[in-house]
Amino acid sequence: MPELKLLHVGHAPAVLAFELANRSYFAASIPDRGDDFFDQFTNRYDASLAEQEAGICAFYVLVAEDGSVLGRFNLYDLEDATARLGYRAAERVAGRGVATTAVRELCRTATARHGLRTLRAATSHDNAASQKVLTKAGFVPVGPATPADLGGKSGTWYERDLQP
Predict the structure, then answer these.
(1) Cα–Cα distance between 27 and 102 in angstroms, integer?
(2) Nearest to 86 by CA among 97, 102, 98
(3) What is the spatial distance between Cα 77 and Cα 66, in angstroms, rounded to a whole number?
(4) Assuming Cys at both sites, which of 91, 109, 121, 136 could form a disulfide with 85, CB separation 3.0 to 4.6 Å?
(5) In 3D, which of 72, 59, 54, 57 has the Cα closest to residue 14?
């Protein structure tokens, strides 16, 4: 059974493999990370771990029994008991409820481990899969998301109040 784990240095090879294997799949619904992301992966990964250590963000990976990464589930800008949620799940598990289950678990973890009371997430109008995940995980639409929020696309902000 897959397990949601806080990102650590040892996950780097599996995270890179996940990002490379799913690059074109992700680019179909969200802006591509670009070659620079992969060229600078180690530096970016180390910077993410430093942000996590500083309490600014919390990064999670959904790890399969074989050690491969099935998804990334991240909490950004932890401040005033609120954070932004970002996530991506591997193509090989798409449509099976894996992302929804992991987002629900992260909501519980956000409260228990990080003391958060509210999560916000934005998704583009054309990303029906992400809209479905958020709705099934208890998020409700709260207003428009601008192209600046979504890498050039318009969409909707969703929010979920977390119960301790």
Answers:
(1) 21
(2) 102
(3) 31
(4) 121
(5) 72
